[in-house]
From TrEMBL, chains A, B, C, D:
<keyword id="KW-0658">Purine biosynthesis</keyword>
<dbReference type="InterPro" id="IPR029057">
    <property type="entry name" value="PRTase-like"/>
</dbReference>
<keyword id="KW-0808">Transferase</keyword>
<dbReference type="InterPro" id="IPR029055">
    <property type="entry name" value="Ntn_hydrolases_N"/>
</dbReference>
<dbReference type="GO" id="GO:0051539">
    <property type="term" value="F:4 iron, 4 sulfur cluster binding"/>
</dbReference>
<keyword id="KW-0479">Metal-binding</keyword>
<feature type="binding site">
    <location>
        <position position="442"/>
    </location>
    <ligand>
        <name>[4Fe-4S] cluster</name>
    </ligand>
</feature>
<comment type="pathway">
    <text>Purine metabolism; IMP biosynthesis via de novo pathway; N(1)-(5-phospho-D-ribosyl)glycinamide from 5-phospho-alpha-D-ribose 1-diphosphate: step 1/2.</text>
</comment>
<dbReference type="InterPro" id="IPR000836">
    <property type="entry name" value="PRTase_dom"/>
</dbReference>
<dbReference type="Pfam" id="PF13537">
    <property type="entry name" value="GATase_7"/>
</dbReference>
<keyword id="KW-0315">Glutamine amidotransferase</keyword>
<protein>
    <recommendedName>
        <fullName>Amidophosphoribosyltransferase</fullName>
        <ecNumber>2.4.2.14</ecNumber>
    </recommendedName>
</protein>
<keyword id="KW-0460">Magnesium</keyword>
<feature type="binding site">
    <location>
        <position position="439"/>
    </location>
    <ligand>
        <name>[4Fe-4S] cluster</name>
    </ligand>
</feature>
<dbReference type="InterPro" id="IPR017932">
    <property type="entry name" value="GATase_2_dom"/>
</dbReference>
<dbReference type="GO" id="GO:0004044">
    <property type="term" value="F:amidophosphoribosyltransferase activity"/>
</dbReference>
<dbReference type="GO" id="GO:0009113">
    <property type="term" value="P:purine nucleobase biosynthetic process"/>
</dbReference>
Length: 462, 462, 462, 462
């Protein structure tokens, strides 16, 4: 996934970029970085781990100076999790300083890199973001904007990019609009973020989604919008990631124009229409499936209950008693309440990727005395890998490998069913969105652009 | 609050004590400690902060040896938060080694300490737990059990104590049974914990609550139960802390014999019976009020919805933008979904202590466009300080200072109402519990024992 | 060894105590602590490791308040190296606060502790210093000074003690004056330290050694000297530790009234008189034997040279290549210069305890091509354990186990000789000191007081 | 300065590179790094600070794999002290991996970098070492050796370079041989280091200095020597840094073929011949001037004594009492023995750069009661900046700004004199070295190559 944040024309730019990163921490916890600009210099600080552990107050106040800043939360889809690969990536080149960060994946990154290396360029990271910088620097065009447009013309994939130079902040969304990126205002300042919940935290007002193919240039004079040449009359076709609605985004975010939790509740309602069964209660796999479960309960009339209690103190450094004790990881996080004993329970899950958590969830319920466990999934079976920013490798997708009945047996549920593709689109159409504006390749295998061979997570390191 | 855990006769004693501490981390996050025994020596490790940050795998495996262990999560009610004051407190005395930890508060601690110091005893901490050790050591009785009973005869207050010596583990609950303490089995081992959710994590089976006034002695020969002299024929009267049901305990724990979440849902139902209003939806102040809100929704028929989204990445080290920005702390943790706009909302809160969070909750909803905010509290107004382990100082109790209407104005709600004392007891009586077996002094000011003057949090340090 | 520092009546008391601890860091590197007093409260900070790693500027400035302070560098002779055992040891008792630290060893500590425990006292550490506090607290005398004198009357051994209460600083030296302790002035302030080099660092002026059996009480009114009852007319006999001159003290310190480096050079001269041989050059085992070697060179006329080069970057965390590579530890610290090739070398060592370093020194010289290595030791053979603060266990003393010739063979030297006891005393008598005022029990086995059985390093932990 | 180490064909390559870095830690303490090769991949670990604090045992054993390694100690002459600028610098480029580190300074680095950036290359650091990598990558030559020679043909300055690729280790010394670099053997392995003392630590045998202009290629087949084209018939003229003898190198190292301490003692002897005076004793500013002082004493017959005692516990984190207390820094490290009172003292210093330490040294002696302090410097006055790796900025050189008499007054010495340039060369000629083979530009201003304008420490960052 990854998350990006940006701000222009605010005296506490780095601090607000930091707060916004904090709000979208769920989009990536492997590393984070902020670059600020005071008009004369860029200042960079990045680190491995979570936002709250990387930045110190003094640094934010005294080192990350200036009225503009961009920030990034890293979730590793390309390249190893080392400090070098944490974004933003910043370079000094002649008189210029440029920093860039992005959410998404370039599908032709390995081809472009090889070409650039053959021309004598040296890369300092293994993340695809760096390629954009090399393409800009090597461009023979005159202005920075022209160089950028030439560079963007060469890259293919999903990208929501923020670029910071000494004097300007630029936001770009790819022509298909795969990943979200939205614009807001905070008094006189412009703010940008992958999700609108970042604006809520700092009291900024959500304005709109950046358009697919749009290039937004913000500087002292104000804001100006451009479009990539082939998107000049706006893109006919979009390929927005449907999984942002199903799982990625925080429920309190407005994504592609619609609040995520509204879509989720509707997905739960559609699921109830398609897959009803008799039961005593409906519960969610917390916390990502809460909205789906509430929708299901409202549609079906079966009471919603909170069955799984979360332990909020999970940290990185946990010592398990013995490796052979199975399911320990989930037990630390979740525990069913005693009152589930003797009950017929419908469990709502947003999706199933590998199925390991589902198996533990079902087992925990039965071991606490549940009578029946009906597993309901608020999205279709995931059968195909994603090349645009989600880490799903073929071998791990349970629905690619097993039939519905075999999945049910494996996870141990009394019954199992998924939402249909049609049901999923009925949910989004309820909000006047069009099915054809979404990428559903993880369910259907129909990719919105050609995928070059030999692409995988570490392809830039080979 | 504080939490205690204990285990006897298990080869991974310290590791399981550690896991159980982790499960009841919500009872205290200021420090934690474990003492183990291998029959010949006691081994102690303690630290400041949360369980997951204090213990390292190597220490647990190689240093905290033996088949028995006790552990403690500290929530500071008495004494400063320094390492010395973290429990268990362990002493070496002649041939003996004794470790002790407890949940609760001794109301005559300052008097006993002064007396002991006048006799030439030196204290190493400012926590009341240490007094018990001095009383045992100074006792002229013959056996350890006799010494312990003599010591317990001198202390007054609420205490659920675990004591570990080289050969035995002893559990004691005060004659009024103020604080919970339960017994479980894990194959051949006995386990003890403040809450039964600790047993779930390690796969142990809940057996029963320790009785008020009971002294349970576990050694190689087995388990044996004694009672404090004045409790020999079981105590007539109990004073169990009702607040364990309302707020303290995890909803998945069995407390005083009944699952906490069942009581909570019933409190929500009683609240709905007493305080209904027209509204579009019911929501909870997460996560502690979820069960109350679900009960309210079920009783009233008004749909339950998840309005507040929690940020799960809150850490200790957070940098706020400016101190004058109000409400920042809560905004970091909670954000309402956009769909609350235009809605009439019933917010369920388990209780109000100082009212500062309630105020922020209401303000957040209105700033997101809520039409009406009806604040409903699933317990009576808290008007009196607690001397048995909860940190409520008179000056801070909003219901002590303001009338209902003034509280409503201060928090900014459309309407405000509390559950009545009668309603609260109807909820517990639904589960065959008797109102007279509870301490409700925080609501009524009727304390179950005389409270000596000049008792406060730091009284042992003066 | 251990080192103590104290200061009274200076606005930067804790900072100066810290600096003085730093100057005498060589006396103990296992832990350090400082207690300060602002007249109303004592403030304590201690830690494991070296002074420079334990204290932070903020703590010294803002936490360790007041005009008086005492500090301690720990070298573990009694008790384990855990934080609890780091001195000063501080207690709160009724209205009083008392902190104490000492350099030395109490030989009847285990007997006194058992007695106190039988009376119902509980100890919080395993260091003998704590016993003094219990004895003071239990004394039935009226004034603090009377209580202290009663307590001191019960302890036996070597002790240079500093005590800090809210209003006064007290310094005590045992009746035999085994360990050093000196008094200085810094403008209006009184300073105390184990060695005078601590005064140089802070610009204080050396005044005098505290007398054996003297009790110095410093408070707002000034300084007052008392003597232990049996020392009232000054002690006839002293038992000053001769090893302070040979090895312990820094050469720039005045010890027992005489600069240590002057005595050392004289020891080297006596060694040259007794044990001359033909050679090309004289060198020292750096840095502790430099002065002895210079004295030897001056007396003998054989040129002094610097053969061993020290690596100043040795830290705690060093990774050796393989455990079987012998002598690695010393090679990291010392390396001979290439020009020692073909030379006949006299190596001067201050003393030999276990002989392992000597062996490595000789081997390094021969492996660099030295022709002859004549090992000369500037003190007599160490054959007996020390019970007063030095960590020499019988089994490890090479001179107790092997003859001179066998030692020579083991360390591989061409020739080996020690300074005689007579030669050693001729050196100190040169400075008008009397041989009978020294403890030489490590060479002779003649202890200045009876030693109870069963005393060893961990005797208080059994 | 900086220091480099390398090793080829040893199963513990990284560990030995680490140990050698430790031995030459004095050449740079701002950062260190190691790159190892297992024939298929390079592995890099670097950090800020000292060697002992950067590397952990596990990393060295399990991560820094392979039979070959190079290491670097950083002393910042070019670029800021951030992690990015720590060497070795390692790149991945197409199928290749190359790591490089060097000791020295390129005087045309800023010009080359600008040229490369104009060609579209992006730099990841601000250290001049990186330029060499870009020049190699951009070379159109066929083989790696040809590319390297082309790259070296473009750079000017002082450089002792180590390069590691997957299969080979290459060592290069600039045509003038400004900085040292020597070759050794450890059984079947080749080792390289800036100073031979690194070989002593690991038990390797010193073989020879790398020749000026020599390129040594070590791979599985063995070792092969090449020369830079303009050095094919060996360089006529060398410009070896005389300051390596005076101050930089450890005295136990063989530098440019001669043990450093032998030269130093001879410098002291020449100083005694030129600048004798009547005195009671000769002492050194420890530890760097010890050998010079011993030479002076031997030539003059005035006894050598150890006057300054060093505190070996100086760490980074030291808290000074107040900033206005002058001279504190030196007092922490050095303290004169009390016996210097009333003495006429000759102090030998290897060199004077800014004069601040000299001033403190003289003041300390007088404040301890010295009668006369005769300051003698074992090298000529430093009047010109060094562009080849020493951090001497014009403004700071006291001898550039003040006359001899004014310097004497400033430092407060009774008399002051320097060794003459002639005397310095007589010392080296004693060892059959030729005066014309040395760079003495810091004394004479005669640089061995033209120096481009605008060169300074941060020139690559502008």
């Amino acid at each position: 996934m990854c998350g990006v944040t940006g701000i222009f024309n605010h005296p506490k730019a780095a601090n607000l970029a930091y707060l916004m990163l904090f709000a979208i921490q769920h989009r990536g916890q492997e590393g984070a970085g902020i670059v600020s600009s005071d008009g004369k210099n860029l200042f960079l600080k990045k680190g491995v781990g979570k936002v709250g552990n990387i930045f110190e107050e003094k640094e934010i106040k005294h080192f990350l100076c200036g009225n503009a800043a961009i920030g990034h939360n890293r979730y590793s889809t390309i390249g190893h999790s080392c400090l070098e690969n944490v974004q933003p990536i910043e370079i000094k080149h002649l008189q210029d300083q440029i920093a860039v960060c992005h959410n998404g994946n370039l599908v032709n990154a390995h081809l472009l890199r090889k070409e650039l290396e053959n021309h004598g360029n040296i890369f300092k990271t293994t993340v695809d973001t760096e390629i954009i910088l090399h393409l800009i620097i090597r461009s023979s065009k005159e202005t920075f904007l022209e160089k950028l447009i030439e560079a963007l013309g060469k890259i293919q994939g999903a990208y929501s990019i923020l670029i910071l130079t000494k004097e300007k902040l630029i936001a770009v969304r790819d022509p298909l609009g795969v990943k979200p990126l939205c614009l807001g205002r905070l008094n006189g300042a412009y703010v940008l973020a992958s999700e609108s919940c970042a604006f809520d935290l700092i009291g900024a007002k959500y304005q709109r989604e950046i358009e697919p193919g749009e290039i937004l240039v913000i500087n002292k004079k104000g804001i100006k919008s451009y479009f990539l040449p082939h998107c000049q009359y706006k893109c006919q076709k979009k390929a927005q990631c449907i999984f942002e609605y199903i799982y990625f985004a925080r429920p309190d975010s407005i994504i592609f124009g619609i609040p995520a939790d509204s879509i989720r509740k509707q997905l739960g309602r559609e699921l109830a229409k398609e897959n009803l069964t008799t039961a005593d209660l409906v519960c969610a796999v917390p916390d990502s499936s809460n909205a789906h479960a509430i929708g299901f309960s409202q549609e079906s009339g079966i009471p919603f209950d909170q069955i799984f209690i979360r332990n909020h103190y999970i940290g990185r450094t946990f010592i398990e008693p013995e490796q052979r004790i199975r399911n320990f990881g989930v037990k630390l996080k979740l525990n069913p309440v005693p009152s589930c004993k003797g009950k017929r329970i419908i469990v709502i899950d947003d999706s199933i990727v590998r199925g390991t958590t589902s198996e533990k969830i079902v087992r925990m319920l039965f071991s606490k005395g549940a009578k029946e466990v009906h597993y309901r999934v608020a999205s279709p079976p995931i059968k195909f890998p994603c090349y645009f920013g989600i880490d799903t490798h073929k071998g791990e997708l349970i629905a690619k490998q097993l039939s519905l009945e075999k999945i049910r047996k494996k996870i141990g549920a009394t019954t199992l069913s998924y939402l249909s593709l049609q049901g999923m689109y009925q949910a989004v159409e309820k909000f006047s969105l069009s099915a054809k504006d979404f990428c559903d390749s993880c369910f259907t295998g129909k990719y919105p652009m050609p995928i070059p061979k030999a692409i995988d997570k570490f392809c830039l390191e080979k």
